[in-house]
Design goal:
2 domains, 8-stranded antiparallel β-barrel, signal, alpha+beta, glycoprotein, transmembrane
């Protein structure tokens, strides 16, 4: 479903993608060299490592259950401040699927200890095994690829495993190669820490588990300042590749579900307390929550500015009509990580059919979505010029693209430049839960990292994107206000800024089949 995406990315298009990424990187290197770039400079901003850069955003939801006092100001510091312990706020689902909770502690010395607890069920109630990872982190520079993020290097010194039951040990043995089962698992006793890796040992058995800490190589910390005086801090780490075979090689450009600071988290958060008090020998068993009845009726919106792998920033706004099995999705795309600079808006319409309960993730439901119509609005002049440069009959009206004017892609059966083909079918996975305020959340299947489309049942997602919230009232999408001061952001020269936007736009269009959407 997710939008009117094309099918699989061709080898030729993927080659263009790599060239686009290289071009972006080259431009950024030239830009920094030309401005006497500091380590922590990012495109179109200027700041030094001794004076943190801070993004400021006001995000307001026009949802019925939110009151005006719930308006939140969000700031993000670069470089990020990591000291302390960061914990999961719910049972997390990784591609596979894998079910886990995390507790990461960072010291001022940049040494870290990461606890990962893995479970047999999607409620994280039945622990299977826990990993205790120790290492060191070095922050490098502001990311050139994912704006607003910080690149880092990590070094792992030790990895220990604790298996929590004989049954879990047997299941683990079935996943490991024989070379690991004999010398390694034979010495593992339930409830006892066994060192699987140190600086003198190889990582072969860890790789067989799909273990990787490459998530540490892309970092962002956001602080939510609430009107009542409280604050919530979230730690965003790099995304996990949806293809198991690529997990240990993937260099993240997006984020996974954030962790929250153990001292500054949402309230109430019973999961936070359980995870914070856990250890490798005492994993948190989360309470089994009753399954929330899946009801798509109404409007659902993003909770904030969302980041996708490969430089994509967007918000989502969906409407579902169960009586007619119809849906409409609005995807607003931006060139910056706080969603202030719109590039284009995509509106997709179609129908859906609800399928069977998922056999892989309890409480989730399978769907099939069909996209029958796509309309695109260019939100800036460079976007309109690029679309007007396409061949006749390949992307909407020839020469008819104007800023702020919506164009229908159906007459041309999509848009080659944007990677859209119509009609289009996708196999989806949905799940609903209740948040800490007992309000419904909608989880929609995660997009494949490699840009392919889930256009057949075996490609159906096994993990989820950031949850969406249900809305009502006259307003149908979240509004946002942003405030900056001279100490926070200094704009680069306008000519250079426009060049950066054009380069990002071209690259974004190459990546559009990645996008999008759900």
């Amino acid at each position: 479903m997710k939008c009117a995406e094309a099918g699989n990315m061709s080898n030729g298009r993927f080659s263009h993608l790599l060239k686009g990424v290289w071009l972006l990187w080259l431009w950024q290197v030239v830009f920094v060299a030309g401005t006497g770039g500091k380590l922590w400079e990012v495109p179109t901003t200027s700041f030094t490592s001794s004076s943190n850069h801070s993004e400021s955003m006001q995000w307001e939801h026009e949802c019925q259950y939110r009151h005006l006092q719930d308006r939140v100001k969000i700031t993000a510091d670069i470089p990020p401040r990591l000291d302390g312990t960061w914990v999961s706020t719910r049972c997390e689902v990784r591609p596979g699927p894998e079910f886990l909770t995390r507790s990461y502690t960072f010291q001022p010395s940049r040494h870290f200890q990461a606890l990962q607890h893995y479970y047999t069920d999607s409620s994280c109630a039945d622990p299977a095994y826990s990993l205790m990872i120790r290492g060191r982190l070095r922050l490098r520079q502001a990311s050139w690829i994912t704006r607003g993020a910080t690149e880092a290097e990590h070094h792992i010194s030790k990895v220990g495993i604790v298996v929590h039951s004989p049954v879990a040990k047997q299941r683990l043995a079935s996943r490991l190669p024989q070379a690991c089962v004999g010398p390694t698992l034979s010495r593992v006793l339930p409830g006892k820490l066994f060192e699987m890796y140190n600086t003198r040992a190889g990582r072969g058995c860890l790789a067989a588990l799909g273990f990787s800490m490459l998530e540490m190589e892309l970092i962002r910390v956001e602080t939510q300042h609430h009107s009542h005086g409280g604050k919530v801090q979230e730690l965003f780490l790099g995304d996990i590749h949806t293809d198991w075979t690529q997990r240990t090689l993937h260099r993240p450009t997006g984020y996974q579900q954030p962790l929250q600071n153990a001292m500054h988290h949402i309230h109430p958060c019973p999961v936070c307390a359980l995870v914070y008090r856990s250890s490798e020998q005492r994993p948190p068993g989360l309470p089994r929550s009753p399954a929330a009845q899946l009801s798509l009726s109404g409007r659902w919106v993003s909770q904030g500015c969302e980041t996708r792998p490969n430089i994509l920033f967007l918000t989502r706004d969906f409407t579902f009509n169960p009586d007619q099995h119809a849906w409409e999705g609005v995807y607003r795309h931006f060139s910056d990580p706080i969603c202030t600079k719109p590039t284009f808006t995509l509106r997709a319409l179609g129908h859906y059919a609800q399928g069977n309960p998922s056999v892989k993730i309890s409480g989730a439901t399978e769907f099939v979505f069909k996209v029958t119509q796509v309309l695109v609005t260019a939100e800036e002049e460079s976007t309109a010029k690029l679309l007007n440069g396409t061949r006749p009959g390949k992307c909407g009206p020839v020469g008819g693209w104007e800023v702020g004017v919506e164009q229908d892609l159906n007459p041309t059966a999509g848009c080659n430049l944007l990677g859209i083909k119509l009609p289009h079918k996708e196999y989806e996975l949905f799940k609903t839960e209740l948040d800490h305020r007992k309000h419904p959340l909608l989880f929609i299947g995660e997009r494949p990292t490699d840009g392919s489309s889930p256009d057949r049942p075996q490609r159906r997602p096994t993990s989820f994107q950031a949850p969406m919230v249900v809305c009502g009232g006259e307003e149908t999408h979240p509004s946002h206000r942003y405030g900056f001061n001279s100490k926070q952001v200094q704009s680069a020269a306008s000519g250079t800024g426009r060049l950066a936007q054009l380069v990002l736009l071209v690259l974004g269009c190459m990546l559009f089949s990645w996008l999008c959407c759900f």
